[in-house]
Amino acid sequence: MKKFFSQFFIFVLYLIAGGMCGYFGIAFFKDYDLSIITAFYVLGAFYICIFLQVIIHECGHLIFGLLSGYQFLSIRFYNFMWVKRNDKIVFKINKVPGTLGQCLMSIDHYQEPFPFVLYHLGGVFNNLISALISFIICLIIHNPYLQSFCFSLGIFGLISALTNGLPLNIGIDNDAKNVFNMMKYPITKYACFQQLKIIEYMSKGYSLKDINEDNFTIYSNEDLTHNLCMSITAFYCLREIDLSHYQKAYDTADHILNQNIQMEDNTIYLLKNIVLYILILTDPQNPKINNIRDKKYLKMTKLLKRELTTL
What we know:
The chain has 311 residues and is α+β, with helices and mostly antiparallel strands. The chain contains eleven helices and four strands.
């Protein structure tokens, strides 16, 4: 239910933003003859500004992460991703449902106070700064094309700041939700550190079995209610598969799926893949295979356009 209200809230915000950008975008041309070109320009600016604010947001994570002592791992805008591998930046296409972008970084050691606020909220800060600059330009420049564009850029900067600066769960936890959890539940700070270290080693070409086991934890059912802790336990299962400890991976993933724990859709899909992978390897006639491959699972498979072997 919380997920539905969060998604509905965001939908309403973008609906209002679209209406404002359309109305005021056209209003800036009141002293000019309106044409179909003007309408297309305003509409085009609408979409371009959404895209630009995603870039601005992720660059905010990068900037404030670097200022907090983090090192760059990867940055993604929609499906376009740049990853650091062996001291080189590599471009790739990567689709992650439920997210418009992502900036992943790592830090050498875990110590208190753990610097997580600026890194996680850096995108929000950048959106707000860009929105303020855009509105100022809109007020001082008397060019309708530039005014319309800057107004849209400012509006979507505010929308991005709101949707990431308020603690919401839209299938995955947003920036503010992660910050809220790490402030309220200290164990999630270490889980965040573990997650970033695992990703760092993987970006360097390490397989999961070669990564220090201290970075993998089977968290309790209570802790698994936090998505950061859940992600580490899911990584634990994948590492056990890499070590050929299939029964351990199966028991852990199957146990979690049978608990009444609220999880992200991506996590449910991953855990089901773990169970399926092991059943297909060890007991291909098991009827549980077809039970797991329900409509929701097949829909997620189609959305991701990946095969089971991506494990």
